[in-house]
Every structure is written in C-alpha cells, then in structure tokens.
Design a protein that fits this description.
Blueprint (H helix, E strand, L loop, with lengths): L14 E4 L10 E4 L7 E2 L13 E7 L7 H14 E12 L17 H6 L9 E6 L8 H6 E8 L2
Parallel strand pairs: 1-2, 1-4, 2-3, 4-5
Antiparallel strand pairs: 5-7, 6-7
Length: 156
C-alpha cells in the first residue's frame, strides 16, 4: 500500500478528518488510505500516526462501517489515544436500518444501542456520549433513520 506521512508541525489546535477522500473538511488534516491529494495517506487500522493526546477533534463520516467490529473498536481506541482530554470525536455512519448500510464493502452496522455500549468497551471508558442523533426529536425522522451521528467527549 502506498503511504504518505509528511512531517506535520502540530499547531495549538489539531483537527483530523479520518477517511476524508478528496473532500477534506476545512482546517482539518486529512487522512485516508487512498491517495486523493489529502495530507496523509495512511490506513488507520495500522494506528493513527500522531502522538498521545495531541488532537483536539476527529471528524469521520461514512468510514466506520467499512471496518469489522473488531477493527472498529481498535480504531476507536486509537482515536481515544490521540485525542486530548476534552477532545471530541464526531462520527456519522449509515443507520443499520437503512438499506445503504448493506452496501458491499460495509463490514459493520451501527445503531443507537451500539453507540450506547461504547463506553463499556475496554479502552473507551473515558469517553462520554455527548450526542446520539436519535436523541434529537427535532430532526426529520426519515433523515434520522438513514444516518446515525454521534459525538464522544474524552473525559479522562
């Protein structure tokens, strides 16, 4: 696999967009295993190439479902490792009830109950669930059933 890991000077605020593809979020460092012109070409299943507690925010959209359940837990532990205390992980995946969750290449399925159990997984107990999309009644129910969004705060 092709890799690109340039020396990145860590600023006061470090934000990662994991699995960004060609559409990296503004003011984020992009990481993807495919070379789409982002900052870092790297497969995060091999770890996240940042020091412990060096990242303020991680954004990942439609990435976690491509990992098996075991890989998902390993990647979440890596995200936890690199996040600073007070750092936030924002994640969006297809909702398990939506037919798009069954696309080829999707290895795991996500729903509210799975998110609620994350803080009980070894190595993730320092996360606090800030937002589980289904908790927000104001959201359009059709959209809510297509995607699952959640935020985790690293407390300790």
């Amino acid at each position: 696999m092709k890799r690109r890991l340039p020396k990145i000077k860590l600023a006061k605020k470090v934000n990662l967009d994991i699995g960004c593809g060609a559409k990296k979020e503004k003011n984020f460092i992009g990481i993807d295993r495919r070379d789409c012109g982002q900052d870092i070409v790297w497969d995060v299943r091999e770890g996240i190439p940042f020091p412990n507690e060096s990242v303020d925010m991680i954004w990942t959209s439609h990435v976690m479902e491509h990992f098996t359940n075991v890989e998902s837990m390993d990647v979440l532990r890596e995200m936890y490792r690199v996040l600073k205390i007070g750092g936030v992980l924002v994640c969006t995946t297809p909702h398990a009830s939506d037919p798009t969750s069954c696309y080829f290449g999707h290895e795991s399925f996500w729903n509210e109950q799975k998110i609620d159990t994350l803080t009980g997984v070894e190595g993730l107990s320092g996360f606090k669930i800030l937002k589980n999309q289904m908790d927000e009644a104001r959201l359009d129910i059709r959209r809510a059933m297509r995607e699952l969004s959640f935020m985790l705060l690293k407390e300790k």
